[in-house]
Amino acid sequence: MQVHDPYQALLHCFARFPDHEGLVFPETGRRLTFAQWLQDVHALASALQHAGVRPGERVAIWAENRIEWPVAQVAIAAIGAVMVPVNTHFRAEDVRHVLMHAGVAAILLSERFRANEYLSIIEDLRPQLEHLRVVVNFDGTTARSPDTLSYQVLLDEHSGQAVDVWRWNVRDCASIQYTSGTTGRPKGAELCFDGMLRNAQGTIERLGVIPGDRWTSIIPLFHCAGCIMNSLAALLAGATYVGISAFDAERMLKLIENERCTVLTGVPTSYLAMLNHPRRADYDLGSLRTGTCGGADCDPALLERYAREFPMQGLVQVYGQTEASTLISLDDAASPQRMRTAGLPLNGMEVRVTDVHTRVPLGNGEVGQLEVRGPMVMLGYHEDPVETDRTIDSDGWMQTGDLGCLRHDGRVELVGGRLRDVIIRGGENVYPVEVENLLREHPDIREIAVFAVPDHYYGEIVAAAIESDALLTPADLRQFCRGRIAGFKHPARVFSVSEWPMTSSGKIIKRQLQVAAKEGRLKELT
Questions:
Q1: How many angstroms separate the Cα of 62 from the Cα of each of 222, 314, 354?
Q2: Burial 170-209 (b: 16+ CB within 10 A, else e)
Q3: DSSP assignment, residue 226?
Q4: 241 and 212 in contact (C-beta within 8 Å)?
Q5: Helix 474-481 vs helix 432-439: angle between axes, to the nearest 10 degrees?
Q6: To 10 degrees, what angle do helices 92-102 and 118-125 make?
Q7: I need a labelling partner for 70 at 20 to 30 A (CA). Which of 82, 143, 456, 526 fits?
């Protein structure tokens, strides 16, 4: 049966195996069969429609991984609204930009997560959010204020009520996924169900995921990898999605053992933390069969060690980005090349390598910028035609900003460089311009450059070189950033610079700063 949206996929699972577990979140003791999942989707969809949410309007989800997240994801699709996932690390300025830029009409959220008071932030921002009409709190059984609705009360009140199910044009925008941009503000990649479902289907075919599999991941659901590669792919396969609120190495080891998970997806940071955990050998991970590792440069030797010692023989290296509906390439779980390369492009995804200056296509084995084309490529950046045209040309080729090559067998090989200045800290993207723009507001900073420095655990961390007469410390800079941008964007290391390496056009040469920092030639502030 061909499905065109997540709601149809859930209907298909309900028809085939209604009593099988569809969602499991052991931390909270919550489990939903496919039948129960569908029941909650119908109730929430009905509630949103009664609250006035119309097809095409944007509905945000701002919550940690929890069972309500995929319920909301499918309900939003059922009523024809556009899903806008929000990064759980975002603070007031981050989330205000996303909600205003997307014109969000409704938001479903956790009241808080860790130290981030989501509901309080939204209540404070609400006078500035002209489009926001509906706020639904996942927590509590009563509304905290007349302007906030209780998720559980809505489910109870709308249980069994009819839903006017939307019929999607699969090339219409169905989700706006925000990813940091070169301008320093998050950009919204518009994705359609044609692209997202092709991507999810291609992933389960390469990994060999089948009904009855139990799929877990440390990846947040707000990431495209979380809500497309993981939860949506598991739904398409008829597999059980086993969720965890946030990554903790031992909790993940325990979850895999207790739930007998067969599929695990993550990033190098998470795999390394589990691999090196002193109690790893106490847990039985023998149920694991396949999974993916991506999000930063993957060391093939480490991937082979993960596969051998967990064990998980079907572990594959993957390559992707939000603008391509998640994955661009991965190998079959049985391929001998699955850890040494990022694999073959997904069916329908064209990949070429071009000269970084001229964009002339290069031959096999030559390193250049990876470009992709096909139905999984985003429709464009939301309300940003200039950046869309800069990224996708008139022939449909999208510049990824990543350096790599194509082998003679068509497999993608990443060489680790990025044309853009993005810092990938443990799978989270940080764009230096955003951090620089904020820290330039500091009264004691005359000049600043933000760049990546290597880190054994995170792969990369944020470093800042500053020119200042004051004796600033990393703690001073983090305090200045606190509450304004997400914590993972805060500089972890700070260096003092009095003379800047500059281009002839007056731009700071960050590569020289990176090398100087690595070689210990910059004065580090502590």
A1: 8, 33, 38
A2: beebbbbbbbbbbeebbbbbbbbbbbbbbbbbbbbebbeb
A3: I
A4: no
A5: 90
A6: 60
A7: 143
What would the two tokens of residue 478 be? Answer: 């983090």
Assess whether the previous peptide bond of 311 is cis (omega < 30° from 0). Answer: yes
With left for phi above 0 and alpha for psi between -120 and 50, is residue 317 left, alpha or beta? beta
Say whether pLDDT at 434 is over 90. no
From the list 176, 137, 169, 171, the residue with the least C-alpha distance to 154 is 137
Helix (H, G, I), strand (E, B) or coil at 363: coil
| pLDDT of 418 | 66
Q: What is the 3-state secondary structure (H, E, C) of 92-134?
A: HHHHHHHHHHHCEEEEEECCCECCECHHHHHHHHHHHCCCCCE
Q: What value does the mean pLDDT take over residues 438-454?
A: 91
Maximum CA extent, the chain: 69
Compute the Cα dihedral for 502, 503, 504, 506 and give only its sign. negative
Point out which residues pair with 465 in neighbouring strands. 449, 495
Is the predicted pLDDT of residue 426 greater than 80, yes or no?
A: yes
Contact 101, 188 (CB under 8 A): yes
- Full 3-state SS string of 275-321: HCCCCHHHCCCCCCCEEEECCCCCCHHHHHHHHHHCCCCEEEEEEEE
Residue closest to 314 by CA, chosen among 306, 302, 326: 306
How far apart are the C-alpha atoms of 159 and 39, rounded to whole Å?
A: 7
Other C-beta atoms closer than 10 Å to the C-beta of 489 total 26
Q: How confident is the model at residue 1 (pLDDT cuts 50, 70, 90)?
A: low
Structure tokens at 126: 């609400």
Residue carrying structure tokens 């940071």: 269
Do the Cβ atoms of 241 and 272 come closer than 8 Å? no
d(CA 9, CA 141): 30
Nearest one of 119, 98, 228, 241 to 174, comparing CA atoms: 228
Q: In angstroms, rounded to a whole number, what is the distance separating the alpha carbons of residues 59 and 53? A: 8
Edge-to-edge, what's the strand order for the sheet holding 30-33? 30-33, 21-25, 240-242, 214-217, 263-266, 290-293, 314-321, 326-330
Distance of alpha carbon 396 from the chain centroid: 24
Cα angle: 422, vertex 426, 430; to 5 degrees = 25
- Helix (H) or strand (E) holding 443, with range, is none
What's the rounded mean pLDDT across residues 515-522? 93
> 38-84, pLDDT tens digit by residue?
999 999 999 999 999 999 999 999 999 999 999 999 999 999 999 99
